[in-house]
Amino acid sequence: MIGAVLTQNTAWTNVERALTRLAERVPLEAQALLSLEHAALADAIRPAGYFNVKACRLQAFCEGFLAHGGVSGLAALDTRTLRATLLALHGIGPETADDILLYAFERPVFVVDAYTRRLFTRLGLLAGSESYETVRALFENGLEADVALFNEYHALIVRHGKDVCRGRKPLCGVCCLAERCPAAQSFADA
Q1: Which residue, 69, 87, 88, 82, is CA-closest to 132?
Q2: Where does 2-104 sit in CATH, by number?
Q3: Tens digits of per-residue pLDDT, 151-185?
């Protein structure tokens, strides 16, 4: 859950460095994070970027986490209520909430990220201007509500987005979707 907050607007490799630094100072537990002064927390998570903002978000998350009974209290909530509870916490938006729901609480919620938007817009399946909730609903309504499926599908999208369908200089020549991708032709012509 800490990683879900830290990964906002940064690469996972930076989050791993931040988590390592943080774990060297305190256990990765809500009460321990709240025991740190803001400046110490911000310094520990510096590699994740936006460290002052993320320190505030982590502190707010930890306070909310404990106020709702920790893992057991939150896990007892149905998915809709749990999502609303997470979204009500300072700094937790839809993507972060869904990341926590899928990976920490194993709820069948599809995570929509920049890779998902880029890939499916290039494939012509999204216009690119759809709201987060619209895109999430498209996936959730089009797939069986299965945690393992959502987890794997999201992971494959992320991998493809990082390795092939990159933001700059996509590798359309090695893309397994190139034949079906309208954007591949435009990149080939460029």
Answers
A1: 87
A2: 1.10.340.30
A3: 999 999 999 999 999 999 999 999 999 999 999 98
Count of CB atoms situated within 10 Å of the CB of 71: 13
- Scan for tokens 């709820």, then name that residue: 107
Angle at 112 between CA 12 and CA 66, to 5 degrees: 70
Q: Say whether 114-189 and 2-104 share the same fold.
A: no
pTM of the model: 0.93
Q: Which CATH class is domain 114-189?
A: mainly alpha
